[in-house]
Amino acid sequence: AQSVTQLGSHVSVSEGALVLLRCNYSSSVPPYLFWYVQYPNQGLQLLLKYTSAATLVKGINGFEAEFKKSETSFHLTKPSAHMSDAAEYFCAVKSNDYKLSFGAGTTVTVRA
Amino acid sequence: DAMVIQNPRYQVTQFGKPVTLSCSQTLNHNVMYWYQQKSSQAPKLLFHYYDKDFNNEADTPDNFQSRRPNTSFCFLDIRSPGLGDAAMYLCATSRRTGDTDTQYFGPGTRLTVL
Questions:
Q1: Distance from CA of A33 to the nearest CA of B (A)
Q2: Fewer CB atoms < 10 Å away: N or C end of chain B?
């Protein structure tokens, strides 16, 4: 069964600093991977997705993620954090029966 | 803009009083999902409809039911809410064609049980 593990439940960064959120996957087949962002009292918004077309995936709000098969990773990055990036971030993998398996989530706080 | 809409955004009910949450979509997607999300946790799938076919998760309590009268609408019924059912309820949709099957989420309904 496919699953993801997010390393670090909380990440704190300074405004303007690099944001790095870690996600490792477990899958016996080529995975379909997703990053979602959730702001307080909101639903999940799709940031980006990996569908095997390209290993470097660019998403919304300046985020990107790189699929590394050798490391079974799909880490999310943003070169320069903004205050508006403060939110909860979920990595997810699509299972064989089309369900999403979510990581536990990483809360990002941005310091002024 | 095509979207997933949930009403109401905030719902307060009393212990044991039935409540219905609503989800509608303008994406014309054939799959609709209901998730429960408790504080500081990942969303947990309750059930989904693939067209008219209802798919219940094995660990979803009988207290939770769902209806999908047409492609655009899906309802979540909680027959006798308990304090433990207080949570954010998220609706999502996807178009199940090909492999990607990306899910798009609504803004959620925050349920409070008094």
A1: 9
A2: N
